[in-house]
Write a structure and sequence with these properties.
This protein is an alpha/beta fold. It is about 40% helix and about 15% strand. The protein has 2 domains: about 180 residues, 3-Layer(aba) Sandwich (D-Maltodextrin-Binding Protein, domain 2), CATH 3.40.190.10; about 190 residues, Periplasmic binding protein-like II (D-Maltodextrin-Binding Protein, domain 2), CATH 3.40.190.
């Protein structure tokens, strides 16, 4: 059985072993051997369906490319950054790996990725320009988009009805107005995921953007999240938490709904839900109780997190030609359609529309126009780790929002200064 959970482990520290590599287009490691290894992640929530899907991809690709032995290794999200960085910098990683935009700059800077323009098969105009831009660094494409995520508001109609909230709250002010009514009925208002393992792209950053702020300064040399906009966003969040409008379980929630407050119908709304969440909620709450709305509107912007998932090629790939062929295979209209159907994610191609099987799917498709992939920076992941800890401190009352943001900014300034 080719699809398996990888057991590759090592103690090399994050990015410490980076070496200067000469990256040629789609694989600098030549074409020794017929094996091709791909690290894929659970973009298909159902484990059994995911295994079956990628097993079929193996068969189909090997049928199209005789002599290539494709192995797709299903990896967990937890610990992903450390493992990918260690693998790529240590020269022992996969030939192809699924990456997100904020991972690209640091790997490109360390020359552990190869440019992948050839992976589009000369069909660059068929892809969303924003998707290609998000997966590029210094004008070079380092990931070919195979799907595009989108997040939006999702509401439990039953809870809103019990609290007497007639219209789903879609702005910060409406969230604050609904909170007392929902609390009186015994429910929290807004779901939030503050676990150390949860990405800020799915919790704090959208609030920051809605307030008009950014994570980094325009030149990328400084952080900007501790400005007035960041303070407004974190104050909005901590005030809701203090009032019980954000559930206490937020501190350990990992952007999932199963066995969490949202899934247990203890909180009425989520502001970074994905299509898979809506499908799961329809099964547990009843389809009639699931309302998908537009992205949350802040005091200055209506914006939500959404980004392309891109296949990147290891600069030391052993089979560069096969890697390029796999990228072309996965970005073809047929495969984009198949993956969009299996995942519920949006299509990164302008000539392929994601099948809208129900009103919820159409609402997510409509939300695509409001998506933002985040600020790309080689230090984005390290800065996120620093800020995430301080947000926890603000939520638990150990620090004021201003103290937390300023502390994270000071630590980030030291980090950015060391990396110049």
């Amino acid at each position: 059985m080719k699809i398996r959970a990888s057991r590759f482990t090592t103690s090399i520290s994050l990015l410490a072993a980076a070496t200067a590599l000469t990256a040629s287009a789609c694989g600098g490691g030549g074409d020794s051997g017929k094996g091709l290894t791909v690290w894929m992640y659970p973009v298909i929530p159902d484990q059994q369906a995911s295994s079956a899907y990628w097993k079929q991809i193996e068969k189909d690709f090997e049928a199209a490319e005789a002599g290539v032995d494709l192995k797709i290794e299903l990896q967990p999200w937890d610990g992903r950054d450390q493992k990918v960085a260690t693998a790529l910098t240590g020269g022992k990683g996969p030939d192809v790996v699924l990456l997100q935009p904020d991972q690209i700059p640091s790997y490109a800077a360390n020359r552990t990725l190869a440019p992948v323009d050839g992976g589009l098969g000369g069909d660059k105009s068929a892809f969303l320009p924003t998707a290609l831009a998000a997966l590029s660094s210094d004008g070079k494409l380092y990931g070919v988009p195979i799907y595009h995520t989108v997040t939006s508001m999702m509401f439990n109609k039953k809870l809103l009805d019990k609290a007497g909230v007639k219209d789903p709250p879609q702005t910060w002010d409406e969230i604050k107005a609904a909170a007392p009514k929902l609390k009186k009925a015994g429910y929290a208002t807004l779901d939030y995921s503050a676990s150390p393992e949860a990405s800020l792209n799915m919790n704090f950053y959208p609030l920051l953007w809605q307030a008009g702020g950014t994570v980094f300064s325009p030149d990328g040399k400084k952080v900007a999240f501790n400005g007035p906009e960041g303070l407004e966003a974190l104050t909005f969040l901590t005030d809701l938490y203090k009032q019980g409008a954000v559930p206490r379980s937020a501190l350990t929630n990992k952007n999932v709904i199963t066995d969490q407050a949202l899934g247990k119908q203890e909180v009425a709304a989520a502001f970074t839900s994905v299509p898979a969440d809506a499908a799961l909620a329809a099964k547990t709450w009843g389809k009639e109780n699931v309302i998908v709305g537009a992205p949350l509107k802040g005091p200055r912007k209506q914006v939500a997190f959404g980004m392309p998932g891109g296949l990147a090629v290891n600069a030391r790939a052993k089979n560069g030609k096969a890697a390029e062929k796999f990228l072309r295979f996965m970005t073809s209209p047929k495969q984009i359609t198949g993956l969009s159907t299996a995942t519920g994610f949006m299509s990164p191609r302008t000539d392929v529309k994601t099948p809208a099987t129900d009103p919820a799917a159409q609402q997510f498709a409509d939300a695509l126009q409001y998506t933002y992939p985040g600020d790309t920076n080689a230090s984005a992941r390290q800065v996120m780790a620093l800020l995430r800890t301080e947000i926890q401190a603000a939520l638990t009352g150990k620090k004021t929002p201003k103290e937390a943001l300023d502390e994270a900014a000071e630590q980030s300034a030291d980090l950015l200064a060391r990396q110049r």
